[in-house]
């Protein structure tokens, strides 16, 4: 069979990611390649790191894109911080907390979890109580739970984690570039994200940053990081002044990430946060006008990813199929505990536009 | 500082990878995104798997691109096959053999190595003797050593490995798409590659295929695969009929891989092997005319990557710098044992063209 050329439908991506990509990013990605040790590429790497520090709101030297999708950065955080036998506390209020716990166990961590129903967030006291009961060397928590639409406040939790002399790992996959993550202000030790959410870059690279406490822990490891590919003790030598070959960087994906970050800088990160917030409000108001109910209370509702409850008697998958086939609109269903109970609507990066919200609302009005 | 737009020089990539990318592949990569569970994307995934089987010369069902560069596929092979305590034999005659040994140790393997000087290959008897001395559950070897330019014959070694009831892992990073790898014919159990060599696709995805013995081993594991991101027991459910979400596939990189494979099919794999061989011969003849000596004897010299010895009294780095700055040509220096002793010239995929060879020879003639 002769393989046909690629011919993709023009989707409007309003699911949990990937989000739509600015045409300038697509164009950047089509730039002919240079080598991964080319002086021009090394210059691009330096500029990418500066821009990543800007969106992470950090001065951390070790701030790099991992050469894989968001899950690779999550695993990099876990693999580099956890040594076999380390006590780890994972806060699970959604799918990605569970994934963190699974990973930490695979890397030999002695994992305890605390749980909250999907869509709720943790109080500082809950984290304190868990650490009081059993101290941990590493605490992992999700800032923006893509599976539930909840936004976890972090300031007090970070202070508590540090008072127990533990390292705080925070997942900002669905917040970076759309909501302030404040790595230095909050004092997050290891913070990672994906490229395909609020940064509006194709999936394939995933930013990570390590603060001084995390670097110290990395340097004091007694064992090698089990994952060779994700070992930051080696990766930092390629991104640092040594430029030691580790693995061939995904050149085109790095072009895309650079251009996506450049566009964030051009818009300014503050205006971008405001845009995400405003378009989310427009969506929430519109959904309420359709008599739909948001799953997460306004106090800790995520602007970039909204979970809205499926009304009784509605076949949620059929609605999604019609959105896709009739109007080229992608939204997503629920995961895990919320499967069949909610739709997940993403308004991230380039997808976060008034016209997209208006179209989705009009389509939902017809279909419901 | 305002980040400037991307402005890369038009490099002629004749190093060990990435190779140059066909403009059609760049164009495919600039296709707007669809979701990773979009029915149109799932169709593309199926067609990609068929094309990967074509280039791997296999019928293996579990044939997928790993979402990372070649090293990620190498690690996937090791991580999925090796369980803590497993005896592993790694054949080291270059940099990538050493990397395999390091990885296998990190995943808890009891690693023994056999060695050959860089640029030589192993005889079947050497592998047999090593297995006779200490049986291994897994044997890993490199087909095309990117660090040395040697092409390892595999037929007899595969038979020996199987006679000891071991699994054979073969690295075909620098051969797939340029030289026959014959997965089914030879009986390779786990075979992996990169996209950025003879397939001429940007780095970012890395093909892997598992045969029946490897699948059986995977199913009989007593422990979870330590790497969550590279765990094929889960990844196969996304690429299989279940379509279970694992991680967000790098959509654009998969577009690129598909188009690159489609171009291989259009050319036919047999003509592509012949082209790599012919252009390599043209290069070797030309280098000999310049009184240069190939590091690897013709019998097991790799057509896709040539190591040529640096003549006495020549500053090898200066020559490379001039090639790059005066003529936009990238070649590479030696790694490890061969550092400072050889240049590495790649003629892979789209880079394997007569005009590139002629230009490089003309430039070298002026500079030497």
> What are the segments of chain A in which pLDDT stays under 50 over at least 5 consecutive residues?
none
H-E order of chain A: EHHEHEHEHEEEHEHEEHHHHEHEEEH
Computed over alpha carbons, the radius of gyration of chain A is 20 Å
Instruction: Summarize the biggest pleated sheet of chain A.
Output: 7 strands, mixed
Q: How many structural units, i.e. domains of chain A?
A: 2
- Tell me the number of strands of chain A: 14
How many helices of chain A in DSSP terms? 13
Chain oligomer state = homodimer
Spatial ordering of strands, largest sheet of chain A: 2-10-9-8-5-3-4
- Which bin fits the share of residues in helices of chain A? 40-55%
Query: What distance lies between the first and last C-alpha atoms of chain A, to the nearest angstrom?
Result: 42 Å
Biggest interface: A-B, 82 and 82 residues
CATH class type of the largest domain in chain A: Alpha Beta
Kindly report the name of the CATH homologous superfamily of the largest domain in chain A: Type I PLP-dependent aspartate aminotransferase-like (Major domain)
Give a quick summary of the entry:
Chain A is α/β, with parallel strands linked by helices. The first copy, chain A, has helices at 23-29, 39-56, 70-81, 95-106, 124-133, 155-163, 183-186, 212-219, 232-239, 251-267, 269-289, 316-327, 354-367, and strands at residues 12-13, 63-66, 87-92, 110-115, 138-142, 144-145, 150-151, 167-171, 190-192, 206-210, 305-309, 329-330, 332-333, 342-346. Chain A has 2 domains: 12-17 and 269-367, Aspartate Aminotransferase, domain 1 (Alpha-Beta Complex); 23-265, Type I PLP-dependent aspartate aminotransferase-like (Major domain) (Aspartate Aminotransferase, domain 2, 3-Layer(aba) Sandwich), CATH 3.40.640.
């Amino acid at each position: 069979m002769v393989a046909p050329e690629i011919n993709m439908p023009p989707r409007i991506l309003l699911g949990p990611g990937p989000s739509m990509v600015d045409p300038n990013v697509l164009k950047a990605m089509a730039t002919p390649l240079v080598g991964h040790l080319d002086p021009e590429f090394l210059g691009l790497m330096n500029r990418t790191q500066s821009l990543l520090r800007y969106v992470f709101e950090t001065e951390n030297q070790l701030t790099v894109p991992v050469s894989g999708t968001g899950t690779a950065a999550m695993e990099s955080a876990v693999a580099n911080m956890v040594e076999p036998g380390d006590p780890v506390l994972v806060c699970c209020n959604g799918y990605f907390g569970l994934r963190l716990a699974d990973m930490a166990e695979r890397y030999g961590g002695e994992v305890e979890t605390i749980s909250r129903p999907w869509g709720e967030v943790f109080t500082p006291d809950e984290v304190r109580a868990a650490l009081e009961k059993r101290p941990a060397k590493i605490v992992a928590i999700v800032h923006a739970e893509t599976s539930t639409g909840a936004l976890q406040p972090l300031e007090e939790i970070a202070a508590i984690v540090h008072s127990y002399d533990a390292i705080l790992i925070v997942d900002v996959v669905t917040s970076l570039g759309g909501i302030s993550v404040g790595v230095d202000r909050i004092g997050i030790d290891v913070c990672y994200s994906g490229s395909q959410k609020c940064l509006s870059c194709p999936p394939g690279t995933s930013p990570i940053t390590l603060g001084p406490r995390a670097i110290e822990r990395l340097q004091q490891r007694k064992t090698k990081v089990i994952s060779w590919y994700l070992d930051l003790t080696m990766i930092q030598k390629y991104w640092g002044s040594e430029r030691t070959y580790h693995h061939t960087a995904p050149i085109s994906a790095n072009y895309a990430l650079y251009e996506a970050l450049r566009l964030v800088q051009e818009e300014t990160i503050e205006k971008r946060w405001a845009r995400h917030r405003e378009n989310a409000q427009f969506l929430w108001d519109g959904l309420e006008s359709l008599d739909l109910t948001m799953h997460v209370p306004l106090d800790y509702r995520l602007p970039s990813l909204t979970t809205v409850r499926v009304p009784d008697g509605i076949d949620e998958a059929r609605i999604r199929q019609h959105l896709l086939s009739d109007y080229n609109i992608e939204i997503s269903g629920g995961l895990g505990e919320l499967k069949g109970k909610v739709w997940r609507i993403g308004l991230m990066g380039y997808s976060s536009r008034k016209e997209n919200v208006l179209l989705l609302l009009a389509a939902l009005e017809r279909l419901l």
